[in-house]
Amino acid sequence: MAYSVQFPDPNLAEDEGLVAVGGNLDLAYLISAYAQGVFPWYSEGEPILWWSPNPRMVLIPNAFKISKSLKQTINSGKFYIQFDTNFSDVIANCSAKKRKGQSGTWITNDIMNAYTELHRQGYAHSVETYCGKKLVGGLYGVTLGKAFFGESMFYHERDASKFALYNLCRLLVKWDFHFIDVQQSTNHLRSLGATDIERSKFLEMLRTALDYPTRREKWEHSL
């Protein structure tokens, strides 16, 4: 497959995953990166850093684990879900969320602008958890073929981000998506059913997922 921007082979990178330095966040760069198993992650003031770590953590949509407490939340009717109705607020909340062990955010203004453009072009999507009219949690990510690349999530009420991920998995099962790329390995994501796989295996899975067309329409009211 030909790309607008050709990245170095991720299989040749060290396990930490740094593939390339520099470039920009234009549409062609970002789509080429994701299609080659690479994503941007850097801090304000740094050059753009492009990564493909080994191992890679993925969540198969039908393997999502529902804890007892989350099941109670789902059954309570406290929250309801929306897709692609408030992308800008979702990414802004993800950027503002304080995270343990991090003094700042990697979701800079440049990142927000770039992914908002991806959203306008139909490649990036938001999943929003509401309590009444209030946005209390959600996530956003990028889709190509039958792969979803999860970027970030946030919550203001307990289980609100998990509720968003649960509903994303429901939708992706319905559409026969192959996997959600959650990029970095964490115990939290492992508790939700995500698993680590070798980078080479991930790249094989990605190539298969890219054989399918990308759903670039808005995902509103898809469940």
Give a verbal description of the structure.
- The protein has seven helices and ten strands.
- It is globular and about 50 Å long.
- The model has no long low-confidence stretch (mean pLDDT 93).
- The two termini are 32 Å apart.
- A hairpin with a 2-residue loop joins β6 (124-131) and β7 (134-144).
- The chain has helices at residues 27-35, 68-76, 87-96, 109-120, 160-174, 187-191, 199-209, and strands spanning 18-21, 39-40, 49-51, 56-59, 80-83, 124-131, 134-144, 147-155, 179-183, 195-197.
- The strands form two sheets. A seven-stranded mixed sheet has the order 5-6-7-8-9-4-10, with helices on both faces. Strands 1-3-2 form a three-stranded antiparallel sheet, with helices on one face.
- With 223 residues, it is an alpha+beta fold.
- The protein has two domains: 10-51, 2-Layer Sandwich (Alpha-Beta Plaits); 56-209, Leucyl/phenylalanyl-tRNA-protein transferase, C-terminal domain (Aminopeptidase, 3-Layer(aba) Sandwich), CATH 3.40.630.
Q: Tell me the name of the CATH homologous superfamily of the largest domain.
A: Leucyl/phenylalanyl-tRNA-protein transferase, C-terminal domain
Count of helices? 7
CATH architecture of the largest domain: 3-Layer(aba) Sandwich
- The percentage helix is 25-40%
Q: Which secondary-structure class do the elements indicate? A: alpha+beta
- Total domain modules: 2
Query: Mind describing the biggest β-sheet?
Result: 7 strands, mixed
Examine the coordinates and then state which fold CATH places here, giving the name of the CATH topology of the largest domain.
Aminopeptidase
CATH class of the largest domain: Alpha Beta
